[in-house]
Specification:
This protein has 16 helices and eleven strands. The protein is of the alpha/beta class. An eleven-stranded mixed sheet has the order 1-3-2-4-6-5-10-11-9-7-8. α5 packs parallel to α6. The chain starts with a helix and ends in a 20-residue tail after the last helix. It is an enzyme of class 6 (ligase). One of its GO terms (molecular function) is ATP binding. Keywords: ATP-binding, Ligase, Nucleotide-binding, Protein biosynthesis, Transferase.
């Protein structure tokens, strides 16, 4: 919706790419002090890209759909010549010598800046960042979710038409739910991870956060595809714009009791069932499915993701680059935050000696069971519906115990373990006016189904068009 509208306005010369970019930069300068979503604003780089797009227009050339569309990136996505910290002191002055593939594919988009995250994407609230604590635009006393909290908050606040985040256990979808925006976790292997700081390489994916499902589909169309620098990627035909034009009559939508745990907040349940009713009224067929191993998701994820994180972060010693104030032990002690060190220690334990067989290999076996559960479910349905999270955003500084914090990813983690795609979109608000998310899950490389169902839902609701209170009266896109 917004991307196509802006593209038309730019091509018609109703506003220039430079004017548009400066509007966003001005809004960030004036308002981001309230939510702290940006770690750095890249003024010169964004204006330079906008000027290049503007010259193309003035030369009489028609620009592509995403050219001139201002965006931002989660600060674990490498940008050549632009500081990329992973929200960690360890990389406080790190400037990558190369760019991530996803950034290269969006070279016509003015990069407004790099946004906050949990340190090395380890967390669910964006509070483990070494630099600042991002606030939820809907309530400045609440968290935005994590680890892509800066991405979700910035899009909700209108500080970019879209953002790219990463999702290892729910890190795009959970903050999208908390901040009332759309977030997609693509199929594993659909989008290149080259140039993205690894957390758990077998689970990590890159995906877009946007205001609308349509915009999400358009961004995915640009960033997907095989990349020789990421051997796990594949080339998949996917006309996502065609998917947006389809209705949902006859599409079978599965509901599993395991995706509706008793701990779910009542307001979340009501919004979910209201959404199910709407989709049924639009022609969707509701079928009951069973996912018996879903409850093991958090435990399996913790063992696998922490083990891989411990292995991936072993390269950080501060000697070759990064935080270097002494020997390796001192560098890692002072340069890494508590949550990162906690996960490294647990991951090292899971991989050590006989524990590898006792924990890690058993977790891999249960992961296969979870994958099989989903495959059996997709024999009965085309897509699966669930709440994105069991609760809405919680208080900043709540200092929840790690096992309680993990419950925020209870409904998102199984999707990562199965390697399949899922979309979160806003489906209502609780009694405190905090956003609620609906999660739609499909089989591998069927993102088109997610967009069909999600877009039809948004054609009949307006949750995605509502603005957080602190920017009421501000035209989000300055048009």
């Amino acid at each position: 919706m917004f991307i196509k509208k802006i593209n038309k306005i730019l091509n018609n010369k109703e506003i220039s790419p430079v004017e548009l970019t400066k509007t966003f930069l001005s809004r960030i300068e004036g308002l981001d002090t309230k939510i702290d979503s940006f770690l750095q604003v890249t003024i010169e780089q964004s204006i330079k890209i906008a000027e290049e797009v503007e010259k193309k227009i003035m030369d009489g050339k028609k620009i592509n759909l995403l050219e001139g569309i201002p965006m931002n990136l989660k600060d674990n996505i490498s940008t050549k010549g632009i500081k990329t910290t992973g929200a960690s002191l360890f990389l406080q002055d790190y400037i990558p010598p190369y760019s991530a593939t996803v950034y290269q594919k969006l070279k016509g988009c003015p990069l407004l800046g790099k946004v906050n995250l949990d340190e090395f994407a380890m967390g669910t609230s964006t509070e483990t960042s070494a630099y600042k604590k991002t606030k939820n635009p809907w309530d400045l006393t609440k968290v935005p979710g994590g680890s892509s909290g800066g991405s979700a908050a910035s899009v909700a606040a209108g500080f970019g038409v879209f953002s790219l985040g990463t999702d290892t256990g729910g890190s795009i979808r959970q903050p999208a739910s908390f901040c009332g925006v759309v977030g997609l976790k693509p199929t594993y292997g659909l989008v290149s991870r080259y140039g993205v700081f690894p957390l758990a390489s077998s689970l990590d994916v890159v995906g877009p956060l946007t205001k609308t499902v349509e915009d999400c589909a358009l961004v995915l169309g640009e960033i997907k595809g095989k990349d020789p620098k990421d051997p796990m990627t594949v080339e998949v035909d996917g006309d996502y714009e065609k998917a947006l034009a389809r209705g949902i009559k006859g599409i079978k939508l599965g509901i599993a009791p395991q995706f509706i745990p008793k701990e779910t907040q009542p307001d979340v349940l009501k919004a979910f069932w209201d959404s199910v009713k709407l989709l049924e009224d639009l022609g969707g067929e509701i079928v009951e499915i069973n996912l018996p191993h879903l409850s093991y998701g958090i435990d399996v994820y913790s063992i696998l993701a922490y083990g891989e994180a411990a292995s991936n972060l072993a390269r950080l010693d501060g000697i070759r680059y990064g935080f270097n104030k002494g020997d390796i032990t001192y560098n890692r002690t002072k340069g890494l935050g508590f949550e990162v060190k906690r996960r490294i220690m647990l991951g090292t334990y899971f991989l050590k000696g006989e524990n590898y067989e006792r924990y890690y290999l058993k977790a891999k076996a249960v992961q296969q069971q979870i994958k099989r559960d989903f495959q059996k479910a997709f024999e009965k349905c085309d897509a699966i519906l669930s709440p994105t999270t069991i609760n809405t955003a919680f208080d900043l500084g709540a200092k929840l115990e790690p096992h309680i914090m993990a419950y925020n990813d209870l409904l998102t983690i199984p999707v990562n373990l199965a390697g399949i795609p899922a979309l979160s979109l806003p489906c209502g608000f609780d009694q405190r006016n905090l956003p609620i998310g609906l999660q739609i899950i499909s089989n591998s490389f069927r993102e088109d189904l997610l967009f069909t169902v999600g877009h039809n839902y948004q054609l009949h609701t307006n949750y995605h068009l509502l603005k957080p209170p602190f920017i009421e009266g501000v035209d989000i896109y300055g048009l």
